[in-house]
Structure formats: structure tokens, C-alpha cells
Design goal:
mainly alpha, globular
Length: about 260
């Protein structure tokens, strides 16, 4: 590896992570000098120590798995419902779109935090209410992007495929889904991020385990390092999931990568 390539590699790393490293250093310096009081702000070093302690006693792993399972079930349920529904609203069933479209637009405007009481009344304080809340907030970005992806498919391409005798199912699998794959992955990323965003409020509803519960419990008991540690874990998990879908998109939507070359 030449000096120029090494310089370019380190330069790319600096541009991508330099601001984050600088932010952490300023954060640590502010805590060490007393500019940021420890009664309100935990320093990065304290957070790392707390994270290490919770990793050793296994509580971090258990709460993370519980939260991931809740987010996963809500997210998967949203995918199963929203993707087919989005394709139906994308123009394949005009009558269905005219009837159901306005209703879904109306329901999508409801603030999920305002629906807390409704979910508690309907589903109680068990696991189902938490999964249902995550499902509710995840379904809308998926639904919107799936329908938008179908609407942006080139009509000329569809006419050409039909003129060649391609059936409806084959047209869907060979033309529509590949052409709208980029929009679908955007919806998947947004829905996954929203699912993690809702973990904290969803786990406020009678939970005794999970990362959201860990943060709420730390807030109630005024355990500042524990609060920041739980928040950091959720942020990192959200970033990892986002990068996972970006990586998956690059592997699946090959034509997009070729177009960018």
C-alpha cells in the first residue's frame, strides 16, 4: 500500500468519523472540567464503565434481547401488512385505492403518543400492546414507500412487458418489485429506525424488562450513568440496523450500484 493510498484511507476515515470523535472529546473535557455537571451529564468514560459493568452481569444482554424481540415482531408484522397493501395502493387496484386510500391517509395522521391510552384499553399492559405500538409507527413509512415505488415504475416498461404476453404475477415479480426495490429498502430503513425510536415509550406501558424500561427506571431513580448507557445502546442498535439495510440494498439492488459507476 502506497503512502498516497494510506493518506487517502485515513483522510476518508477522518471525514466520516472526525466530527464524532471531536464531539466525544469535547463532551469528556466538559465533564472533566465541571462545565457539564455530573449530576445531569455522564461523561463518555463513565458510560463506558457502566456499559462494561452491565455487560458483565448479563443484564444488558437480557434487556437488549427483549427489546430487540419486541421491535422485531412489530417490524415484521408491519412488513407483512404494509408491503402488499402498498403495492395494492400503488395503482394495481384503482377502486381499492380510491376507497381505502383516504382512510389510511386519515389514520396515518394520528400521533402514536396520543394513542397510548387507546392501546392500553384495547390490549392491556402486556407484550401485545408494546408490539402493537411498534407495529403502528412502523407501518406508515413502509406503506408510503411501497406505494410510491410502484407508482414510479416506468409505464412504458409495463406496456412492453404486457405486449410480450407477460402475466400479472410475472409482471409483478419481474418488473414491479425490482423497479421499486430502492423505495422498499428506504421504507424498511425508516420503519426499522422508527421501531427503535418507539422502544422507550412502548416499554413505558407496564414493562419490567427491556432497554426502554432500563432508561425509564434510571430516570425515576435518578441513575444518570445508567440512563445514558441505555440511550447509547438504543442509538448504536439503530445505526447498526440502518447500515444492515443499506448493505442489504447494495447486494440486492445491483442495477443501482451499476448506474452510479
Amino acid at each position: 500500500m502506497t503512502i498516497d493510498s494510506l493518506y487517502q484511507t485515513f483522510g476518508n476515515i477522518f471525514y466520516r468519523f472526525g466530527a464524532i470523535v471531536l464531539f466525544i472529546l469535547v463532551w469528556q473535557l466538559a465533564c472533566s472540567t465541571g462545565l457539564a455537571p455530573e449530576t445531569f451529564v455522564a461523561s463518555p468514560m463513565v458510560i463506558i464503565k457502566t456499559l462494561y459493568q452491565y455487560a458483565l452481569d448479563g443484564s444488558l444482554y437480557k434487556n437488549t434481547i427483549i427489546s430487540l424481540s419486541r421491535a422485531f415482531y412489530g417490524f415484521i408484522l408491519a412488513v407483512v401488512v404494509a408491503v402488499p397493501l402498498g403495492f395494492m395502493l400503488g395503482g394495481w387496484f384503482k377502486s381499492f385505492e380510491r376507497i381505502i386510500g383516504p382512510l389510511l391517509t386519515f389514520l396515518g395522521q394520528f400521533n402514536p403518543f396520543a394513542l397510548f391510552s387507546v392501546f392500553l384499553l384495547l390490549f392491556g399492559i402486556g407484550e401485545f400492546s408494546k408490539v402493537a405500538m411498534i407495529f403502528w409507527v412502523s407501518i406508515w413509512p413502509l406503506l408510503y414507500n411501497a406505494s410510491l415505488g410502484v407508482k414510479t415504475v416506468d409505464p412504458g416498461l409495463i406496456k412492453l412487458a404486457r405486449s410480450m404476453g407477460m402475466g400479472r404475477i410475472k409482471l409483478l415479480t419481474k418488473i414491479v418489485i425490482p423497479s421499486s426495490a430502492s423505495f422498499l429498502f428506504s421504507g424498511l430503513r425508516l420503519a426499522a429506525g422508527t421501531a427503535f425510536f418507539m422502544l422507550i415509550p412502548a416499554e413505558m406501558m407496564g414493562a419490567s424488562r427491556g432497554l426502554g424500561w432500563l432508561i425509564i427506571n434510571a430516570q425515576v431513580n435518578y441513575q444518570i450513568p445508567k440512563l445514558y448507557t441505555g440511550t447509547l445502546v438504543i442509538v448504536v442498535l439503530g445505526i447498526v440496523i440502518d447500515y444492515f439495510f443499506r448493505f442489504l440494498e447494495k447486494k440486492v439492488v445491483i442495477w443501482k450500484e451499476a448506474q452510479n459507476l
